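Subject — a protein and its fold

Tokens — whole-number codes for backbone shape
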Amino acid sequence: MDHFYQLGWQLDPLGGPSGEAYKAEQDGRKLFLKRNASPFLAALSAEGIVPKLVWTKRIETGEVVTAQHWKNGRELTREDMGGLRVAALMSKIHTSEPLLTMLKRLGMKPMLPEVLLNKIQSSLSPKVNAHHVVRNAIQYLENAVPEIEVADCRVCHGDVNHHNWLLSDTDELFLVDWEGAMIADPAIDLGMILYPYVDHSEWDSWLQNYGIELDNDLRSRMKWYTFVQAITMIQWYEDRKRFTEMNEWILFLSKVMDKDRLI
């Protein structure tokens, strides 16, 4: 990012797994810079899902840098996730034809359940695969693969935890960090909001705000995808030897199993 230093910008790396995001300041102006962001960012900006895209530039290294308006604000709390605004924004994302069209233009194919199951089965380490909670979950996944039509797949974020939601100081709500975007069954996002954040007694009202009714089919699909995502996170943390977080996800997976038996 020497190009921007030479132009007089002050850059502060923002961390994160990619290490490619920066807060940029010059003469009181603040921008959020990202290296090698997907062209999908433009569609997200146009839909108001992320802070507005200001410009896209190719720099001397050949890398593409995007700049968005810098938004002061806070991430959502766990309690915020059960609110009407989260449900409304998720519905907007899942029903957006422009977003779906853009991902298709970028060559993305639907992430069907069979593909997700194969990815998990081929990626688990012996240690994770041997854990009794994971084994029970894998057996369930193998025996209960949802039947999803390609036409029912929509744009999904894939990592809707509360850290990826930004409420600005001017009361604008955004969902950020779209590196894991996919075309898939919307239940993959819904399950990871309802199971961790929303009491089961409020699932019906949350989904009504989203725009659908809770039925047995949706319930089983959300459970299936929540198992997939929990196992994925268990393996992700095990790979990085972050065993505290790994155990937290194992505990979450176990609680989802127990909760579902009571529903």
Notes: DSSP finds eleven helices and ten strands in the chain. The first strand starts at residue 10 and ends at 13. Residues 2-70 form a domain with the Phosphorylase Kinase; domain 1 fold (CATH 3.30.200). Residues 153 and 184 are 4 Å apart (CA to CA).
